Amino acid sequence: MPVVSRELAGELVRAFRPGLRLLRLWPLAGAVSSQVTCLEVQGADGARRILVLRQYGAANLATVPHLADAEYRLLKLLSAAGLPVPRPCLADESGAIVPGSCLLTEYIDGERVHEPADLPSFTRQLGAALAAVHDCGLARADVPFLPDAGDRVLDELGTGPHTAAGVVPETTIRHALQANWPPPQVSEPVVLHGDYWPGNVLWRGGRLVAVIDWEEAAFGDPLADLANIRLEILWHFGTAAMDMLTSEYLTLRPAAETATLHAWDLGAALRACEFPLETLPLPAGKIASMRAAHRDFAAAAMSQLRAAPR
User: Fold this and answer.
1) Would you tell me which of 41, 69, 74, 266 could form a disulfide with 20, CB atoms 3.0–4.6 Å apart?
2) What pLDDT is recorded for position 275?
3) What's the CA gap between 223 and 264, in Å, rounded?
4) What is the mean pLDDT of the chain?
5) Distances, alpha carbon 198 to alpha carbons 30, 128, 183, 210, 249, in Å
6) H or E, element range at 201
7) Is the predicted pLDDT of residue 296 greater than 80, yes or no?
8) Is the model's pLDDT at 61 over the cut of 80?
9) What are phi and psi of 100, to 5 degrees?
10) Across-strand partners of 210?
11) CATH hierarchy code of domain 6-106
12) Range in 61-65, 184-188, 224-228 the model is least confident about
């Protein structure tokens, strides 16, 4: 997707607020499925601010055709609930100004952290932020535009295989998940981020300041989000950090039922089968350790599911 031109970006910010003038723009690194651009603007009063333009990729729009509108509405609700998310400014699905579907939000000053100086604090804050999202109080009736998390797993079960034979036991994971799907609905369904991992969190001064990139948001079992971040933390920081995050989350949400966690862990493991880890700019040893952790994570989930009472 091409970077938006200065002329079109100027038109877009004026559509949001007629008095705004575009000063400069630059691409924002880190996005995978969308083109993200920072726009510095100036109001009639001389005050400057930064906005973020997200232009959605074709794969996202094929899954959720009205993604810009859905993310705008969700961010508005989450922001009103006091959660640390970007405040939405404008959603445009017409393509009349910039090509394709896009969303304009406020910029949050923060950065992604991949090597935290204080890992215990880092993992606890990640767990606490996820608990806050799940406790924000939004009901299904508030977000009828969000897909169901369980349906996404069914879609995943209907595709594949994604990986070369022997890299990960995808077929075994798939068969085990099919035998245990769907899990019982024992937890109150909530709004889910859908892709909660350290790459979608911003930090400043050692504090978590924003949860971003809500384009895969869904509604359903809160342990779907927990399973996703558990695997991500295991990959990057090991078992102790994964257990610490899980403990923090469950401490803050004591009413959360964990009976479905292993099924959702297995769902996260199946989803991860499609991740092209070998293409990442990482040492071969790190990729090999991530593959081994993935296999162990899936094996542990399958073992727990076999041991669970029927």
Assistant:
1) 41
2) 87
3) 6
4) 93
5) 12, 13, 27, 11, 15
6) strand 201-204
7) yes
8) no
9) 80, -165
10) 202
11) 3.30.200.20
12) 61-65
